[in-house]
């Protein structure tokens, strides 16, 4: 069956129906607002889109239909931004959306249901407002070039560059898995289906007039059952879950990975000592117990090896994995689709979050692959082995990988990535350290005080939690009024603590001469800070913003 995809549509809204009419088609879709029934019609049928008297909008696409407490909602793309071309197919970034209710009135809801419905709408907007959503009408962004090539018929960076007179397109695509999805501290490790948190497939594509070359890497949480639940500590201690069968779940994960990608180079960057040690030892022992010859485990204590900003020592890791990278190769075709080489394996890199350390190492691996490809295609001059550090291509490469790090981190942790000064400049800087400090503080605040709502938003958007008809009336909603009152008290106590700290420091830095009165004020505010802080710490688990929709969290 030949499926046509349309990129420009008229959207008519009537009291009882939605009409979606592609600009260049003799067919259109009718969606019944009463029951959500969808039907396809031709312009010759009796059912015609209205010409006058009803609301008409232009839309770029339809994301789907979601049920909230007030009823069904149609999610449409209203604006888009052109990003670039892959295989001559336009790639777009979603720049606007709308949630259109099937039921135009809320009069059938109780006051409590109205409040809960608004919270669900906020959750949907929370996810849809996260940059960046990419799509294409003609190119399958969800698949690598190798998967597309074997079966014919998402952070994105597309760049046109020139190297030694050759015009190239260099593309970076990251695809975040929707399986076991969530936020940084509420979504860790593996589930019983062998799916891991923060799994991201990153593909680097180089396109010339004659060649198409793809190189794929993956990242994903340590494939064991473990958690790191937020509790107001700066770094909650990661804990392995006792009584879970780590071996079976981990084996299931790597069976699927080997089936999908081939051999696996497992690069583990977590600390060998301290809080992360238990995970490092358990991961290595589990891989050893699996005994799969397609899995090669490489452990590299990033923080120890690169302490005092000695990032040049990453060359030690690159030497250890060079032979395996050469054996993996790349996927290489010509412009008409003739396959020269296929990629036989991937590096699966992780740190504790699969963000900051992981991105640094992945960018180095990607650059080595890119330079080998440029040499093999004859784009480098004779004897040339590396991209000119002062070239436009070098700047584009570093900026794209740093942006890639920031966007993956933004989706998972709520902030940009750490250590991107190294990715952007090739060295660690004092300014970069200050930026990391600010991002770390922001992560702490978000992970403890806002990520419960964000976790709920992801689970609602992906359909992991489904709102049922009658929620909040026939049976209780997880979004209860009592929870709202508790949240209000939490915010008041937190605001009180922050105000007391602020007043203490305002008096300390006051330009007035120190006096008995100043000392009494300092002592008073200091005592209040200590008392509030002690209460805060004693009840710290109660102050963390926790997910409400699924009890598993």
From TrEMBL:
<dbReference type="GO" id="GO:0043812">
    <property type="term" value="F:phosphatidylinositol-4-phosphate phosphatase activity"/>
</dbReference>
<keyword id="KW-0812">Transmembrane</keyword>
<protein>
    <recommendedName>
        <fullName>Phosphatidylinositol-3-phosphatase SAC1</fullName>
        <ecNumber>3.1.3.64</ecNumber>
    </recommendedName>
</protein>
<feature type="domain" description="SAC">
    <location>
        <begin position="156"/>
        <end position="414"/>
    </location>
</feature>
<dbReference type="GO" id="GO:0004438">
    <property type="term" value="F:phosphatidylinositol-3-phosphate phosphatase activity"/>
</dbReference>
<keyword id="KW-1133">Transmembrane helix</keyword>
<feature type="transmembrane region" description="Helical">
    <location>
        <begin position="492"/>
        <end position="512"/>
    </location>
</feature>
<dbReference type="GO" id="GO:0005783">
    <property type="term" value="C:endoplasmic reticulum"/>
</dbReference>
<dbReference type="InterPro" id="IPR002013">
    <property type="entry name" value="SAC_dom"/>
</dbReference>
<dbReference type="Pfam" id="PF02383">
    <property type="entry name" value="Syja_N"/>
</dbReference>
<feature type="transmembrane region" description="Helical">
    <location>
        <begin position="518"/>
        <end position="537"/>
    </location>
</feature>
<dbReference type="GO" id="GO:0046856">
    <property type="term" value="P:phosphatidylinositol dephosphorylation"/>
</dbReference>
<keyword id="KW-0472">Membrane</keyword>
């Amino acid at each position: 069956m030949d499926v046509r995809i349309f990129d420009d549509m008229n959207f008519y809204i009537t009291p009882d129906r939605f009409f979606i009419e592609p600009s260049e088609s003799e067919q259109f879709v009718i969606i019944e607002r009463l029951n959500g029934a969808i039907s396809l019609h031709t312009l010759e049928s009796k059912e015609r889109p209205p010409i006058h008297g009803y609301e008409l909008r232009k839309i770029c696409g339809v994301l789907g239909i979601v049920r909230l407490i007030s009823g069904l909602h149609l999610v449409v793309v209203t604006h888009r931004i052109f990003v670039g071309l892959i295989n001559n197919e336009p790639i777009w970034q979603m720049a606007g959306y709308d949630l259109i209710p099937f039921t135009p009135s809320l009069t059938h809801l109780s006051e409590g249901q109205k409040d809960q419905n608004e919270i669900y709408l906020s959750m949907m907007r929370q996810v849809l407002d996260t940059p960046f959503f990419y799509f294409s009408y003609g190119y399958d962004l969800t698949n690598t070039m190798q998967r597309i090539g074997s079966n014919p018929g998402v952070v994105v960076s597309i760049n046109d560059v020139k190297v030694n007179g050759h015009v190239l397109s260099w593309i970076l695509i990251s695809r975040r898995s929707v399986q076991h999805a969530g936020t940084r501290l509420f979504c860790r490790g593996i589930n019983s289906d062998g799916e891991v948190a923060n799994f991201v497939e990153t593909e680097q594509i180089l396109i010339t007039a004659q060649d198409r070359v793809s190189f794929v890497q993956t990242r994903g949480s340590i494939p064991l059952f473990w958690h790191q639940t937020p509790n107001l500590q700066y770094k909650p201690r990661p804990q392995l879950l006792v009584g879970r069968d780590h071996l079976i779940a981990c084996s299931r994960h790597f069976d699927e990975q080997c089936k999908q990608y081939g051999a696996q180079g497992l690069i583990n960057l977590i600390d060998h000592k301290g809080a992360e040690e238990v995970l490092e030892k358990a991961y290595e022992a589990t891989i050893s117990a699996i005994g799969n010859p397609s899995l090669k485990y490489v452990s590299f204590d990033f923080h120890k090896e690169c302490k005092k900003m000695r990032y040049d020592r990453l060359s030690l890791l690159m030497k250890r994995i060079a032979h395996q990278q050469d054996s993996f190769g790349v996927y290489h075709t010509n412009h008409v689709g003739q396959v020269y080489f296929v990629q036989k394996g991937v590096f699966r890199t992780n740190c504790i979050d699969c963000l900051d350390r992981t991105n640094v190492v992945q960018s180095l691996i990607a650059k080595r692959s890119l330079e080998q490809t440029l040499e093999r295609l004859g784009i480098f001059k004779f004897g040339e082995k590396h991209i000119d550090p002062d070239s436009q291509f070098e700047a584009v490469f570093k900026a794209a990988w740093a942006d890639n790090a920031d966007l993956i981190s933004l989706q998972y942790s709520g902030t940009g990535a750490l250590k991107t000064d190294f990715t952007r400049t090739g060295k660690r800087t004092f300014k970069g350290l200050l930026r990391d400090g600010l991002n770390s503080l922001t992560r702490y605040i978000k992970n403890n005080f806002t990520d419960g709502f964000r976790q709920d938003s992801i689970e609602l958007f992906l359909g992991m939690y489904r709102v049922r008809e009658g929620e909040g009336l026939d049976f209780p909603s997880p979004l209860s009024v009592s929870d709202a009152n508790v949240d209000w008290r939490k915010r008041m106590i937190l605001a009180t603590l922050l105000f007391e700290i602020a007043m203490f420091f305002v008096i300390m830095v006051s330009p007035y001469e120190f006096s008995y009165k100043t000392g009494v004020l300092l002592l008073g505010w200091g005592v209040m800070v200590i008392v509030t802080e002690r209460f805060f710490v004693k009840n710290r688990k109660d102050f963390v913003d926790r997910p409400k929709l699924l009890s598993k969290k």
